[in-house]
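Why does residue order matter? Because the sequence determines the fold. Keep that principle in mind as you read this record.
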Amino acid sequence: MLRTTFVLTITRHRRLLATLVVVMIGTACTADGEAPGSAPSPPDDAPAITVPPEAEREARLTLAAEFEGLYPAIAAPGRLVEVDLVARESVIDLVEAGPTTVWTYNGTVPGPQIEVEVGDTVRATLTNELTSPTSIHWHGIRVPNDMDGVPGLNQTALAPGESFTYEFTPPDPGTYWYHSHTLGSEQLDRGLYGAIIVRNPAEVESFDVDATWILDDWLLDETGQIIEEFFDNHVAMHHGRYGELVTANGEPAPILTVRPGERVRLRLVNASNGRWYEPRFDGLGARVLAVDGQTASRPVRLDDVTLAAGNRLDVVFDAPMTPGAHAVVDGVFGADTPLGTILVEGDPVAADHGTLPLNSSVPDWAAAAALTPDIDLTIEVGVDEDLFARFRFNGRSYPDVAPVHLEQGTFAKIRLDNRTGVLHPIHLHGQFFKVLTRGGVPVDEPFFRDTIFIDGQEVVEIGLVPLETGQWLLHCHIQEHAEAGMATVALVRAPGADLPELPDLRAGHIGATLTAPEGDMDPDEEILP
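Structure:
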């Protein structure tokens, strides 16, 4: 097992270094934003992917039919859960140098964990006591479109002193999170995020311990204060802003204490601006039960998934009967960065927990790999007239978008062609999707997700059956990439209805000002994350 983990980690590390080298070379950035070149061809032994055109319509109907039953039936109305969230400046203790000034919900980082059951209605009132406008996005939850929290698209940002009440009934159990969706490169980095857990009452007795770790990284100066150059040309053109201090729930390397024999569900949330994680659990036989809140049809090896910015992983394991401490580390770059410790101690409990609560309704969708994509989205990077970085979907940089058109209940296949040399975790609001192919090769992920990690110069195809109508953002969850224009809009219409109207995004969009504190990008600069 150790040998396998080592090889996989080094492989990812080498692939990362290769993509970093081509950030400015492979994309050949020009002042008008064009990025010539194409993604690598599939390997020679990749299976042929062809389907007779006349068979496509029938295949799509079959795929949509297979999708039915993936989500649970609409639950009976439950409780009304009312939450007051106040966005304000606070201080927390992160390092010995002194208290760190942060932005918080209700004075803590992360903000309060909201816990509901399927069928409960959340009524969350946000009050803005910051000096900046703000809003909340309920990441991964299928909320009504006007509750999604994207300024200029489906909400007006709250000015300082204003309040707004979000109300929605989460239809899907799982691990989700809420965070600012205004000036994300700054506001997430300052600490505006928290978890929202939607429980399935039938699963409560499946686990003895159910805990959440929200991972984040912090870039601090020698006095323990956040370095405030949040959005400059360097981080925009690279992999976003990275900090040197990694925390879970605002604490460096916390300890989770469990008893021998207990079955543990540890929900991991990546709230970092750009950093991704490859969690490794020493000696615990940990597996992944759910990705982005969506339960898998079979347990997944940790080696087979990445916790990219915005992603969530529900990790499960049975605590060994022998007491001891088990390190949880991040394997990216082979650095084994400490994330926390699982401490097994105390009186043992019965170790017979039965089978894991899996989702047997996840469709296979293997046939979808052969279908022609309905939508092609090409990701490119260039520079504007001021030589500042701009990312583009199909040549358009947010808020100047060419929206994607989807129909409720109809299968759609989207091809994401990353022609840049950097990594992108692509997040779709309001819908879940399944990864179909990578680099032209079919993949078998036994789960749906809302955020997909795409390597530099990689082509990924996804399939979905949209259920929520409205205007939904699709964007890179590296906050600095999104601020540099890497976003577009999916317009989802009901069958037979007109497309939702695309608002004037420029009128309501609140974008960060890109700066170049050390000068403009140098095409000959050594590229580092």
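The mean pLDDT is 87.
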